[in-house]
Amino acid sequence: MRIGYACLTVAVEGTQIKTCTLKTATEERLLSLADENLRTLERMVDYNIANGIRLYRISSDIVPFGSSIAAALPWDALNRRRLDTLAQKIALSGMRVSMHPGQYTVLNSPDADVVRRAVEDLNYHARFLDALHLDATHKIILHVGGKYGDAAAALARFASVYRDLSSAVTRRLVLENDGDIYTIAEVLDLCGRIGAPAVYDNLHNAIHPADGTKSDDFWVSLCRGTWRPTDGAQKTHYSQQHPLKSRGAHSDTIAVDPFLDYCHRLSGELPDIMLEVKDKNRSAVKCGLCLLEANQRLLETEWGRYKYSVLERSPQEYQAIRELLKDKAGDNAVAFYRAVGRALAAPEDKGRAVNALEHVWGYVSEDATSAEARRYASLRDGYLRGDMRLRQAKSALYRLAVKYRQDYLLGSYYFTL
Predict the structure, then answer these.
(1) For labelling, which of 134, 235, 343, 406 has a CA lying 20 to 30 Å from the CA of 124?
(2) 255, 287 contact by CB (below 8 A)
(3) Element (H, E) at 321
(4) What is the pLDDT of residue 294?
(5) How far apart are the first and last CA of the chain?
(6) How far apart are CA 133 and CA 244, in angstroms?
(7) Which residues of 146-170 are buried (b: 16+ CB within 10 A; e: fewer)?
């Protein structure tokens, strides 16, 4: 099985996808952005490989306006070498990638123009994955769409449009249940009619259940039967409800124990699991290390990323983790992330926060100018007095870390947690 994340890679330098407005979307600008974003995608793929992440959803925005005004542009031919390099890295690492068109890609709309644009969008996504020479195990995920007052007619419309899609699209297309309109039972029924695989989303089913008496394992098992050998391993989506936000909002991070409980309750071969969560790759690394065979090197790398965020909140957990990681032979991932979670849940404390600030300042203090040192001291002292927010002091340190190329700091989570 593989565990992965969607689109954006957080707290990793040089992984921001760039786009433009329709007003500035000249041919030259679009081709330049496609080139730049493909370079960024390669950096994200490299990060995934280095961190043992073998499931990844590629952003639809790699080629801005890829399904409309950029559809006629030769972005793939002009970037053939880079696409070939990406394809080789994905293949050699055993990574599986996917794409997920947005909410406006609706195949069953009664509006023919909406359907036309949806088909064009699916063609773009298939073109992108084909440009990477990827086989049909690399998927395009889609929601069914609306019911428009007549669910039976809407499903029949979807099936009719599906039959006219190109084979480049249908060999990749998989359907997912959503949290408002189509339950997993309805998706399974449609998939049976058209011969497409079904992707089960646990949170969508929790807030919009097909049958509240049925378990996640029940639906995952039913969905497994829709996946053919040419589709590759079954794929599912997993997320947790944010405790303070609206129904269906994804959590900031994946809590380890509920995730492990979900996985251990699944019978048969575990599917590939795409995490849908705000902290993206952070949770993918966490869940991978806790569920799959622990990698001591990666766990120690993770500690380097978390250590100043933990120190900022809980010196006690900081020391406990240091002791834990002295055991080089043990499988300590779950205990490690539990301790990290306890620390990050602790309330902000000015004394502890300044202690962490001073540790981080030590990395740049010898290079900083006297004006920069005065600015940092002013922000630190202002925070202690209550005149400044902690974020202001951390942002100043981040800018210094960038200026003086403190890669260890830039690779940490300190500036984003």
Answers:
(1) 235
(2) no
(3) helix 315-324
(4) 65
(5) 29
(6) 42
(7) bbeeeeeebbebbeebbeebeebbb
Q: Is 85 helix (H, G, I), strand (E, B) or coil?
A: helix
- Report the 10 Å Cβ neighbour count for 9: 26
Biggest CA-to-CA distance, the chain: 71
Handedness of CA 152, 154, 155, 156 (dihedral sign): positive
pLDDT, tens only, 178-204: 999 999 999 999 999 999 999 999 999
Q: Do residues 249 and 288 touch, judged by C-beta distance below 8 A?
A: no
The CATH number that domain 3-291 falls under is 3.20.20.150
Question: CA 216 from chain center: how many Å?
Answer: 22
Token pair, residue 312, equals 């900022």
**166: its two tokens:** 């190109």
Question: How far apart are alpha carbons 82 and 88 in whole angstroms?
Answer: 10
Q: Using CA atoms, how far apart are residues 91 and 132, in angstroms rounded to an integer?
A: 10
Q: On the CB side of 100, how many CA atoms lie within 13 Å of its CA?
A: 17
C-beta of residue 45 within 8 angstroms of C-beta of residue 89: yes
Domain ranges, ordered by start, for the chain: 3-291, 296-345, 350-410
Decide if 275 contacts 287 (C-beta within 8 A).
yes
| 143-168 residue pLDDT tens | 999 999 999 999 999 999 999 999 99
Which residues of the chain, if any, have pLDDT below 70?
A: 293-294
Give the separation between CA 57 and CA 348, rounded to whole angstroms. Answer: 34
Rounded Cα–Cα distance for residues 120 and 355 (Å)? 54
Angstrom distance (rounded) from CA 398 to CA 392: 10
| Residue pLDDT, tens place only, 289-311 | 999 766 788 899 999 999 999 99
Identify whether the C-beta of residue 25 lies closer than 8 Å to the C-beta of residue 34: no
What's the pLDDT at 296?
82
* Tokens encoding 285: 């690394």
